[in-house]
Structure to design on (176 residues):
């Protein structure tokens, strides 16, 4: 029996996990799941409200619970994780046991430009920060998180972040 392919995109906030994930899911005819959106839908609360009312610890518990739930789905999918998801509660190990992790390694300069264009408040950790503060926050986040991201089974960066490159890299993970 063929095992379903479960692809989990990891990387910094603003690295394009959701946008790229939707493209890949469409290409593979898989469902696309955004972990943060799933948590919001299932709990009936916005992520930022969970952080404010219950703290980061409670959010990380919920995040791990729903990550494990998704990774147990019977069908294949493409999952966009939150930027911090791989860094808590052995989540990266869980992802790698049950799926194929893909690190979208986007330059901090590119992420900063995307965040500056996205002033809609979708990313609460960057709201109200100026360009210099965003740069500093991104550098600090990358220092804290990159060791987890580098545990990914596939790494795409720069020009390699394309459907074609990912499809080529995934060929080795299709199981018979």
């Amino acid at each position: 029996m063929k095992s379903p392919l479960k692809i989990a995109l990891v990387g910094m906030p603003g690295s394009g996990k959701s946008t790229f994930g939707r493209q890949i899911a469409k290409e593979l005819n898989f469902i696309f799941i955004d972990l943060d959106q799933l948590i919001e839908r299932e709990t009936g609360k916005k992520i930022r409200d969970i952080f404010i009312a219950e703290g980061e610890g409670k959010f990380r518990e919920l995040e791990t619970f729903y990550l494990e739930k998704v990774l147990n789905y019977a069908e294949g999918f493409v999952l966009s994780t939150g930027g911090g998801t791989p860094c808590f509660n052995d989540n990266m190990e869980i992802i790698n046991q049950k799926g194929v992790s893909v690190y979208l390694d986007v330059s901090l300069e590119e992420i900063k430009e995307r965040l500056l264009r996205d002033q809609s408040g979708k990313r609460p950790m960057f709201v109200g920060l100026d360009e210099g503060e965003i740069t500093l926050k991104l550098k600090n986040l990358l220092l804290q998180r990159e060791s987890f991201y580098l545990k990914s089974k596939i790494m795409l960066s720069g020009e390699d972040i394309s459907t074609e490159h990912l499809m080529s890299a995934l060929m080795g993970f299709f199981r018979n």
